[in-house]
Specification:
The chain is mainly β and 176 residues long. It is built from one helix and twelve strands; from the N terminus they run αββββββββββββ. Strands 1, 2, 3, 4, 5, 6, 7, 8, 9, 10, 11 and 12 form a twelve-stranded antiparallel β-sheet that branches. A hairpin with a 2-residue loop joins strand 8 and strand 9. It binds calcium ion (2 copies). One calcium ion (CA) binds next to strand 11.
Length: 176
């Protein structure tokens, strides 16, 4: 069955490429504890071998569109960075949309960085890709947390619905 053997070899090569591209990966879940679509359900964190690029993938229990995070609203997702693992926030990234395009602006420690694009691969999925070895993304392991905030004129979120993930403390982004 040479056809099947060739297929198996291709699969093995693909698996090797995936493993080497993402040598370090971590994940965590957050409870279903907040009304509205921005109730955070969990995150996964992957580092690439090529310069320590970090992929932050945040998932929510509900679906939402980039318009929900429009600049003119106060609905936001925040990414909190503790890059020296002392339990205190060093940088904060603010995710919002302008004309339907999601971006994240990162500030902290007296520094501001140009906004970078944030991705929305599915209705319940936010992805932020951080270039390697930058002040908010050191090659060593660091800590991350997320906050979401939604305010609506009607429904459960007339006073802001807020979620933090994890509820207390931090999740670990593995070293590159
Ligand atoms: Ca939650
Ligand atoms: Ca810190």
């Amino acid at each position: 069955m040479p056809g099947i053997r060739r297929f198996a070899v291709v699969l093995l090569v693909l698996a090797a490429v995936v493993v080497s591209a993402f040598p370090a990966q971590a994940g965590a879940i957050d409870p279903n504890d907040t009304p509205g679509p921005l109730d955070i359900s969990g995150g996964t964190f992957s580092r690439s071998v090529s310069g320590g690029i970090t992929y932050l993938d945040l998932h929510t229990y509900g679906n939402w569109t980039p318009a929900l995070l429009a600049h003119h609203t106060r609905n936001r997702i925040f990414v909190l960075f503790d890059v020296d693992n002392d339990g205190a926030q060093d940088f904060r990234g603010t995710v919002q949309s302008f004309g339907g395009r999601l971006s994240i602006s990162i500030h902290g420690l007296g520094q501001s960085f140009d906004p970078i694009r944030a991705r929305h691969p599915a209705g319940n999925w936010l992805q932020v890709i951080l270039s390697g070895d930058s002040p908010p993304n050191p090659l060593s392991s660091w800590q991350v947390a997320f906050r979401s905030q939604r305010i609506s004129a009607t429904g459960a979120c007339t006073s802001p619905c807020r979620d933090r993930a994890p509820d207390m403390g931090w999740w670990t982004v593995p070293a590159a």
